[in-house]
Specification:
With about 90 residues, this protein is mostly helical. The protein is about 60% helix and about 0% strand. The chain contains three helices and no strands. The radius of gyration is 17 Å and the shape is elongated.
Length: about 90
Amino acid sequence: MLGYGEPSWVINLDGGWDLVPIVIAAVALLLLRVVFGVRLRWPVVLAVVLLAPLFRAWGDRIGMPLASALALAVAGGVVLATRGRRPGTPRSGV
């Protein structure tokens, strides 16, 4: 279902397989692992795979360079916001 292109899409008039969302998910998972150092657990992988077709549609709508830049900025912000100290580590300067 994720890779099957609808005949209404301009890029897939023959109704064939559209592998772009799968490639987007693979690149996003690689970037999350290498650039941001995120542990790839099953909820992260599932979320990326399910969001890839929506990202493709969004990228087609506003332009893929802008969509990629915004996605990297949001991912970086989320990673920085959720990355915390180990439990029990004392705060510095308190």
